[in-house]
Write a structure and sequence with these properties.
The complex is a heterodimer of chains A (about 110) and B (about 110). Chain A contains no helices and eleven strands. With about 110 residues, chain A is mainly beta. The radius of gyration of chain A is 13 Å and the shape is globular. The relative contact order of chain A is 0.34. By secondary structure, chain B is an all-beta fold. Chain B has no helices and eleven strands. In chain B, strands 2, 4, 5, 6, 9, 10 and 11 form a seven-stranded mixed β-sheet that branches. In chain B, strands 1-3-8-7 form a four-stranded antiparallel β-sheet, with no helix packed on it. The radius of gyration of chain B is 13 Å and the shape is globular. Classes of the chains: A mainly beta (about 110), B mainly beta (about 110). Chains A and B meet through β4, β5 and β9 of A and β5, β9 and β10 of B.
């Protein structure tokens, strides 16, 4: 069965403390992996698309990487404005499957 | 380029009533997907429309329906509202694989 699991569910960091969020997946035929950021009460905001193992994408303090079984969203020297829920979604041959998200809190 | 717009932004309805939500996709995007988001369930896929045809459907009861017009604008309808239908309803449009979301409609059923 196709499945996407994000960990941890929540992560609290001090400003400047780098860390990584994980998105592990089991799907039949990966056609793309997507990362989104969602602020409370708003729609998800598209961040990255990754298509094949070894691919990396960067945007400001965020860097997304992809292997055959999982993706990492690395956040370097985060700031309080990086606080949000980060969602991962995987496009298989048949459907788009969403993870439950990781709630990231950055304390000043 | 204008983003995805959803109307209304907030809605309060009573159990048993019906509601219609509207979504205008990004210009040129022909695919529109609808999601329900609640704190306990996360993003739940409702359905996807492409060129006025429903292309995919999630596991929701028949009370939830939708349609797409020739200009790609989409509506979803929920009939016989239940308390559990209270949620943020999100619309996303796409051209290729990436989905771009609107701000959502916050529906409260009392």
């Amino acid at each position: 069965e196709d499945q996407v699991t994000q960990s941890p569910e929540a992560l609290r960091l001090q400003e400047g403390e780098s860390s990584s969020l994980n998105c592990s997946y089991t799907v039949s035929g990966l056609r793309g992996l997507f990362w989104y950021r969602q602020d409370p009460g708003k729609g998800p905001e598209f961040l990255f698309t990754l298509y094949s193992a070894g691919e990396e994408k960067e945007k400001e303090r965020l860097k997304a990487t992809l292997t055959k079984k999982e993706s990492f969203l690395h956040i370097t020297a985060p700031k309080p404005e990086d606080s949000a829920t980060y969602l991962c979604a995987v496009q298989s041959n048949y459907q788009l499957i969403w993870g439950a998200g990781t709630k990231l809190i950055i304390k000043p | 380029k204008a983003g995805v717009t959803q109307t209304p932004r907030y809605l309060i309805k009573t159990r048993g009533q019906q509601v219609t939500l509207s979504c205008s996709p990004i210009s040129g995007h022909r695919s529109v997907s609808w999601y329900q988001q609640t704190p306990g369930q996360g993003l739940q896929f409702l359905f996807e429309y492409f060129s006025e045809t429903q292309r995919n459907k999630g596991n929701f009861p028949g009370r939830f329906s939708g349609r797409q017009f020739s200009n790609s604008r989409s509506e979803m309808n929920v009939s016989t509202l239940e308390l559990g239908d209270s949620a943020l309803y999100l619309c996303a449009s796409s051209l290729n694989s990436e989905q771009y979301f609107g701000p959502g409609t916050r529906l409260t059923v009392t």
